[in-house]
Amino acid sequence: MTDFGTFVDELRAAANPYASFDDRKAFRARHATLLAQMLVCLDEVGVIGANPMHVDPPAHCDLCSADLAQEVVFIDGETRLDSTTVSDPDGVTRQIGAWANMCFACFSRDGVAVGWGSGQLYVQRRPGEWQCIAGGDPRAQDVDE
Ligand SMILES: [Zn+2]
């Protein structure tokens, strides 16, 4: 486990405006479980939380078939499974894993990260009503975008 001082130093480095996409993605992946747990706690204490509701939430985890109605959170995100090679418009090649709706246990084992382009973290506010608390489009102006 990473000590908190090291985590904060790495967070500040990743948040630097000159940090690359790949450096930021690596930071998110290195601390995926801690970041997801921290986001849920930050939501619980009211630091974050005003984000869109899921318009068509999944009923089950795509990986283990867990009934998501019994879960507090799920992650709609990239997995470490079934990766394929993709090239962006600049010709940069990356390995991208298959996407899945994951319960927290499956995310901790097979998920990549929470963050735009990696995964959205949803909290169940009322039965069947899921709100994105992290990882949504940082530039979205409307819930339909
Ligand atoms: Zn699962």
The bound ligands are:
zinc ion
Choose one word for the global shape: globular
Number of strands: 6
Q: Taking strands numbered 1, 2, ... along the chain, how are they ordered across the largest sheet?
A: 4-1-5-6
Query: Over the alpha carbons, how many angstroms does the gyration radius reach?
Result: 15 Å
In whole angstroms, how far apart are the ends? Answer: 37 Å
Secondary structure class reads: alpha+beta
Total DSSP helices: 4
Number of domains: 1
N to C succession of SSEs:
HHHEEEEHEE
Main β-sheet: number of strands, strand sense, barrel status? 4 strands, antiparallel
Helix content: 25-40%
- Oligomeric organization of the protein chains: single chain
Low-confidence stretches: none
Average pLDDT level:
90
Estimate what percentage of residues fall within beta strands: 15-25%
